[in-house]
Amino acid sequence: MEPVSFEAKLPKVYKNFNQPLNPQLLKTVLIGPPNAGKSTILNNLVQNEVSIVSARPQTTRTRIPGIMTHDEKQVIFLDTPGVVTNQSKQKFNRELSTTPWTSVDEADHLLVVLDSTKLINNTSHAEDFMFERLKQFEKPATLVLNKVDMIEDKQIIDNLIQENLVKYDHFKHHLAISAFNGIQLESLKDHILTLTYPHDWKYPGHIKQDASDYDIVQDTIRKEIFDRLTGYLPYQVIQKNVGWHDEPNNGALIIDQELHLPSKSIAKILIGTNGKIINQITQEAMMSLRRKFKRKVKLYINVKVDKKKL
Hints:
The chain is α/β, with parallel strands linked by helices. About 35% of the residues lie in helices and about 25% in strands.
C-alpha cells in the first residue's frame, strides 16, 4: 500500500485569483471552554461542515480554518480545541492546552464563546482559567453567550453577560445566541463583517475551508468514532493512515486506515457485534468524504490492538 502523499497533507495554495475592487479582511479566533458550541457557530457562519460537532469535549484537536466571504469582505475563522486547565504530561493534553493560545496571538479579533448553562450550574472551571490567560493579550473581543435558548429568564442571561464582560478589559461587543437554533446568528455575522479592514483576500471567494485532504479524512473518521463510542473509549483510538492512492481504472481515491487500540476488550466494542459498529463508521465516513471531495472514495478501516502503552 502507498502511504499518504506529501501533497495530500498540505493545505491548498491559492495564488493569482481575482481580488474585488475594495477587498477587506479579518482574522478571528473562536475560543472558549470545551463544548461551548464553537464548532457549531463556525459551521453555521461559514455554511459548511468545517469543524467536527460532537457532544464530547476535545473533538476539535487542531486549528480548523473556515472562510466566510460576503460582498467584498472576507473573514477567516479559526476554531480551536476547548481551553482546558488539565496540564497533563501526556502529549495529547499538551497539544490541546497550547494550540488555542497560538491562534489568539495571530488573530485580529476574538470571539469568546461561553456556554450559558454551565455558567449557571457552575460546572466548568475552564472559564476562569481562560480569562486569566487572556489578560496576557490585548486583543479586541466579542463576548458570545451561547445556548441561551435553554434559559427562560432573560434577567439571568443579562446577569451572566455583565458578570463576564468585566473579566476581560478588551470586550467591545456582546451577543446572546443559540448556535443550534440559529438565534441571533445573523446578528453575529453582521457584527463580524463590520470589523473587517482594507486588505487583500487570502482565498478565492468560493472557498469555505482551508484544510488538507489528509486532515479532512482524519477528522471525518474521528467524528464517526466519537458519535458511536461512549465514555473515554473514543479518546483511546489512534488513527493511522496506511494507504492512499488513486485507482487506475475509475480514478477512485482508495484510503486505508488503521485504528489502534490498547486492548482487545476495547477493540471488540469498536468492532461491534458481527462488525456492526466499525462497518457503520466506515460507511458513514466514506459517504461523507464522497460529498466533501466530490469524487468516488473507497475507504477501508482495520482495527488493531497495540500492546504498547498509549
